[in-house]
Amino acid sequence: MPKPENDSLEQIYNIHTHVFTLAHVPDGFLGFGIVPAARNPIVAKFIDWLLTNIHPFKNNDTYDRLAVFARAAAFPTSKDIFVHMKGYYPYGTKFCVLAMDFEHMGAGKTLAYEKQLQDMLAIKNDQELGEFIIPFIAIDPRRKNLLDLVRKYVEEAGFCGLKLYPPLGYYPDDPALHPVYAYAQENGLPLIAHCSPGGVYQKSRISGAVKKELLKKIRPIPWQVRWKWWKVNKHLTAAYSHPENYVPVLEKFPELKICLGHFGGIEEWDRYMNDSWKPDEERPFDKAWLAVILDMMQMYPNLYADIAYTVEAERLLPMISVLVRNPLFRTHILYGSDCYMVEMDKSERAFSVNVRGYLGEADFKQIAQDNPREFLGIA
Hints:
By secondary structure, this protein is of the alpha/beta class.
């Protein structure tokens, strides 16, 4: 593979990316029969065009999100996605690739989760690509023999970290995860967790007792969606992602390095910027997740957060600049893009250049090289 022009940074780390294909996701992942249909590349092109143009004057809406997944059908393998992503960055860039365990989300038939892990392993074993991938294995407390699976891919396949995605239907402090956390802490494996109200969520119906518990942890559900259970799910399962859910984990496993992916998410950053809140509010959801994470960072030295997809909106770049220059948070913010979801709005290169250009070389180096090396345990 030819090397492009030299880059002023010695090494860039993109801490938050994905390479799963439509073959890896359940048939009901998107609804409307889109996934089974989009597995045909010809049909996928039509679906992409249709969804993108339903609201031609509105960007980043639900249809644009669906179009991104339809577009993924153009990449038949995980390796193809990885090569495509890599081509947007300077030659030596390394990518943390985060697996996703979709088998328990209640969205129908899907390939075995290990097939996705094997496809990631194929990239790691590739002579030209292997040095640039840092694979993370997804963990779900509902999976049988979870610790054995983690040990297998860490000790035999060289996976380097763990990925958590609570809105698929579980809390980060589930007791079934504790043996895995203990193993990770003992072996210096970092954990990256989804932490925003948006994203993929549990599709199966939520029981009344569980629903009652979740309602205590989120803002009231808009009346427009209360009668649609599949939309209620999206709002309810956001409770699984709340940053405060990680406090028991941080207390019990103080040496475990945890990165809260998305830094709370665009919605919560906007709420932090635009809403006034009172310190004496009784309900925890009244405080923006960004504020909660910043409070937690000052209490737990091994807590990090990445900016994956959060600052795709240029209006939020000033906020990330302020945070990076603050000595309280400077060493705990990580660069990530959320490939390939960021391509809803712009290319990977546009995203990275926007962040780098706004922050400047010194601050970008801090979040894209120095902090990731510390988080990953790289000398």
